[in-house]
Amino acid sequence: MDNVVTLIVLVLVVLFVVTIVIRTIRIVPQATAVIVERLGRYSRTLDAGLHFLVPFIDKVRANVDLREQVVSFPPQPVITSDNLVVSIDTVIYYQPTDPKSATYEIANYIQGIEQLTVTTLRNVIGSLDLEQTLTSRDQINGQLRGVLDDATGRWGIRVNRVELKAIDPPASVQDSMEKQMRAERDRRAAILNAEGLKQSQILTAEGEKQSQILRAEGQAQAAILKSQGEAKAITQVFDAIHRGDPDPKLLAYQYLQTLPQIARGDANKVWIVPSELNDALKGFGSMFSAHGGADGGAGGAGGDGDAPRRRADREDAPHDTGLPDVVLEDPAEALKRAREEAAGATRDAEGATRLGKDE
Question: What is the pLDDT of residues 237-264, one digit of tens each?
């Protein structure tokens, strides 16, 4: 029996010693502060490391986490200045800076921060309309942080950042905003389409203008070259005719050959014989009479024995066609001159247009 009692006493002593050791030794983790009270009053704040307490006299009141904390508050209904109710979610980033104040100045600093955030948010949003509320998040965050930092400073809490997580207007207002945004996008799309069409038409008009200018330049160059060729051909033909020295008999014969071509065609119902036809026929008849007289003698009155001699004299003598010498102009110079004339005409037309607008 005595052994049992001794064993029980020994176990109780061991338990008492273990309890004393546990109450005496306190290991505080990093970034944690421990508030210690002695006989019910604040004694000291334990930092990270190993500490010794007086058993049954010193008591740990609270463990305060010194790291930055993040807390998200549920949506709160807030009324704007234009009497619209919006729901706003907030996120608070805070950090305890004074563990003693955070323990003794307020019973629950998280709840205090939440309620202070709600009241401050209602005051700030109440002075803004819906559009300002949706577009002034940074301003609202700054105002909330300033008010919360001032109020929580005596609690030993520093508010580092305040964010509006979501701003939800009423469903009817959201539908109206979506319609407004859709109409704005349609308007911008119409403006862009009109600008694109305008640019397209401008470019098309510029292309047509350049095309017409180039076509006109080509036609001008072709006309110049054609006229120069025709002038050269006329000069050569006239020169050949002058060198050939045709007599009236040959001209009368050519005239008679041309008459059937004049009368040819279904549209030529009536054609007029010119008065020169009689002279041509007379010349043609004299040609035959000259050939008849030539049988009797080469020096007859109707003969034309002097014609070869006159032709030879004209070929030997320098001839004058009576036409000015044709000098072919360089196509590049002609084209440059045509462009200058076209540019001058364009400037005159634009000046006339501006003058008409000014009047």
Answer: 777 767 766 666 666 666 666 666 666 6
